[in-house]
Structure prediction request, 412 residues.
Amino acid sequence: MAVMEISVIPLGTKTPSVSKHVAKALDVLKNEKDVKYQLTPMGTIVEGDLEKLLSIARRMHESVFNEVLRVVTTIKIDDRRDKQLTMGSKVRSLQEKIQTGSE
Amino acid sequence: MAVMEISVIPLGTKTPSVSKHVAKALDVLKNEKDVKYQLTPMGTIVEGDLEKLLSIARRMHESVFNEVLRVVTTIKIDDRRDKQLTMGSKVRSLQEKIQTGSE
Amino acid sequence: MAVMEISVIPLGTKTPSVSKHVAKALDVLKNEKDVKYQLTPMGTIVEGDLEKLLSIARRMHESVFNEVLRVVTTIKIDDRRDKQLTMGSKVRSLQEKIQTGSE
Amino acid sequence: MAVMEISVIPLGTKTPSVSKHVAKALDVLKNEKDVKYQLTPMGTIVEGDLEKLLSIARRMHESVFNEVLRVVTTIKIDDRRDKQLTMGSKVRSLQEKIQTGSE
Prediction:
């Protein structure tokens, strides 16, 4: 299991507002079964196995093209093989360190 | 006002667990007055003016070096000048488009 | 045709030197037929169709795991559908604008 | 000394061609004294000390706003403190590993 962050940026959109185009990419996730994701102010975070994450990324990227001619998509994958990595475990692990200040 | 996402990655940390190092960077934010930020599974999102955001980014990056010798920091800044961009407004704008399906 | 930039970062590598691990990812590209790529100080840039680029990205990411337990891979795809985008055309287009200062 | 990659993306540019806007950011670099940089198909790579790199990043980002209202800028900084990191040394170190296949 890996955690992916994806952000799609449509170029040449007439106005600086791009949310209606980005919403198309999120529709792909909404229609996906059994996928856990989280919307942030700077992108979308999804957890799943690598193959599935990349398939989702490809379809999210494609979905933006119905009205725009150029899309820049950034994908970051955090993949750890010695223990289960989830969106929840990543944040919890960090919050414990911040609160206790322990090493 | 702009919105920044920052992620610090310490290299050469002996184990694949890096949260104790990343926690140092978050301490910088905790000690910052009047800065709104949000922790996500893939980074930290901060809103503020450009000058302040870059100053925070520099100090977060530096803070990780007390125990590690190499840090790769990724910063993404979304800066819009025709209207106020906030972490909240970005997510709300997107959620409206998804729910209504309107353009 | 799209242009992709990919960067693989192995975590928990004991020393801050990671080039021997990153070299594994580049071996994937070397063994690929008919793929044009360029090594930069911050990643690798590849041109090709979207499907192929994501397949290469997946294999480059996987290749780093033989000795490390965690890999953070960043992929950026610039995909334009109204005209052919290549590594060469992108740089040329920019250099013309810089030299002439024309709009 | 650190190595930075920066990419500026103007939004709402009416056409998918953005090179004339990106060229403004490169003018900032051209006018900078004693800064080593390299143009790639996906961004610009600069080497220097952290403070200077972030100052350059801020000015490159700002320079794009004279005609556009929204800019998304991505900055990646690779900073190593146990030895001198340069654009040249990073690529050379990698090429040695690929050619010899040594570990």
